[in-house]
Each structure stands twice: as C-alpha cells, then as structure tokens.
Amino acid sequence: MRFRHPDGTTVHLAYCSNVHPAEDVDGVLAQLDTYARPIRERLGRDRLGIGLWLADDAALALDTDPSMLEDLRVRLATTGCEVVTLNGFPYAGFHDEVVKRKVYRPDWTEPARREHTLRLARLLTRLLPDDVEVGTISTLPLGWREGFDAARTRAAVDNMAGLAEDLAALADDTGRRVALAVEPEPGCRVETTTQLAEVLGDVAGPHLGACVDLCHLAVQFEDGPTAVAGLGAAGVPIHKAQVSAGLRAEHPGDPAVRAALAAHADSPFLHQTRERSGGAVRGVDDLPEALAGGLPGEEEWRVHVHLPLHHSDEGTTRPELEASLAALVGGPTAVTAHLELETYTWGVLPEGRRPADAADPVDGLVTGIAAELSWAADHLTSLGLTELP
C-alpha cells in the first residue's frame, strides 16, 4: 500500500511476515498464497506491501539459486504483493517453542550477522519494484546488553559501518540504495533513541540509520515526537518505522489488572517490563519477573507485547503510537518513507485480543492483519496523506 505525503514523498505501508513461521523458500512462497493474497483481497486493494522476513537458510538459498529468486519475484507479482523493506532482526528460529534471548544472536560482533545482512541487501535490490530505488533492512540494536562492554560496542559499530560501505558499493553496482535501520529495544545494548544517536555518532548516513519501533519507544517511556526530533538533530536518519502498540497497565497493583497481565506471561518471547517512578525508568527483562515482585507496581507499567493496532482499549500504548506517527509523517515533511506493522504475537495473545473468527487460524490471522492495515491506512489519511491507487 502506497501513500502520497503532501511534500511529494511516497510512503510505503506493509505488514511484517515474521508473524508466519516459514524458514525455507517453499514456506515463504506458500505464505504469500495462504495469507498475503487473502489479506489484499479482504482489503480490496490491488497491491499489498510485505515487510519480508527471510530466515538465514531461506536467504542463503535465494542468494545462491537464481531460479528460486525468480520464483519469489513471480509469486510476489501474481499475489499482488511488493517488497521495499526486509526485517533482518530475527536470524532464525523465530517461532521456536522458546525464543527469548535467542533472537539477539548472532549479534553485531559476529561475522555471521554482517554476512546475513549483506545477503539480505543483495536480495532486496532484486526484489524492489521497478519504480522504487531505495530499500531498507531493520536489524537488532547491536545485541543483548549483557557482556557488551566498550570494546564489544566498538566492534559492533565497526561492523555496521563496514556494512554501510558494502551497501554503498552495492548501490554503485545496482543503482539501488539499501539502508540499514537499527532498532532500539528494551534490554539491549541500545535501548533508546538517545543511546542510538550516541552509538552511531558520525557513521550514520544514507546507508545506516534508525528503525523506530513505536512499541519500544512507549515501553521505554520515550516521548515519540521528542525522539524523532532528537534523532534528526543528531544527524541520524530514520530509514524505517515499525508501527506497533505495547501493553499498558495503569494500576499494576490491582489484582484484576495483574490477572490480565498474567495472561500474557506464558510466552516464547521476552516481555520486557518498565515502570517510571520519580522521573526514573526501572525495568526487568520479562513480565513474570515483574509480576513476582521485580518492580514496585506503584506506577504505570508498560510491557513489550506487540498488540493489534485496531484495539483501542486503555490497555495499549496506542495514544503514544498516534503521537509518534504524527511526528513521523504528519508534519510538513515525511521523516520516513517505510512503515511496517509488526504484530508477530497473534498466535500467543489471550483469546480476547484475537480475531472473533480465530476458530479458523488462517482466516483469523487474515482478518486480524487486514483490520490492522485498514486502521493504519485510515489513520495515515487522517494525517493528510493520500492513498495511491
């Protein structure tokens, strides 16, 4: 889905395919027919944006077998889908029974991360629509924080800067620019946009910048408009934004609220939890730890659980999302051109947050993602953007 910003920028809206468990090429092809085509048809659009997730095995196969890559290009065309961004954060195993901290490996100190990301970049230059010259790849914020001393931080940033040079060479060869977008996340070496600006320093530019996840911003109690302005002032371009909402508990000491929170606790994913008290943000690495007394529970909690955007109850950070989205694309200029919905948690959400027809898992997921995209499209038009036919 494409939108025209008043300044003339084409803003792309996509949903991220990391919600689907496929980790080989056959699985990636199948999910386009099983999910993407029905979502597009449910929306009544001729074109659907996909933020494609390619596990390393799939990426390697596509990079080394031109016929496989051509099959993917044809399938994207026949299902009415287009790719301008890839989610390069999960390397593999994103739908394992237990994911937790495994999603942060390999980190940016390890050669495998740079090799994987460059492989994705080569693929993206071949997958971009003919009329699009810039693609983006979101990636993890260096790695999980434990053990990340100054030396490892320097090594990770050097690897990112080296990849940016590789991407510049790739642009010279292909005429298409791919930008790496680093995504701050609670618990990682880079948790906030302020830390990202400090870490990237003068290496940020057209091939290296930020991916702003609006759930992560809210969980860290960052003010979205301030964060967007701060990255701009620091010279860090926002190449991509993930439009996602987190879990909010205004009264975490209330037994009913704690019971609702506990419904999210048994999950394969980490649910980093934060509480702001006296101007300071305190945090634990997972929701069960918070519920067991790891946080005081005296002030509002925000939890890293990606919730459906179209759910407007008080238990989400959607107000913060809307303020951040206005700062990104609601002003006189578009700060970013790539927006990706990343609700990968549909399969582990409590029943009350799943689609009404979730008895059929496929149709339920199609219904849910279509509803999110419809909400996002309506919200973009309310900000003054015009959907392109």
Automatic annotation (TrEMBL):
UniProt cross-references to Pfam families, sorted A to Z: AP_endonuc_2
Coiled coil: none
Source superkingdom: Bacteria
SUPFAM superfamilies for the chain: Xylose isomerase-like
Limits of the Xylose isomerase-like TIM barrel domain: 58-229
InterPro entries: Xyl_isomerase-like_sf, Xyl_isomerase-like_TIM-brl
Protein name stated in the entry: Xylose isomerase-like TIM barrel domain-containing protein
Species whose genome carries this gene: Euzebya pacifica
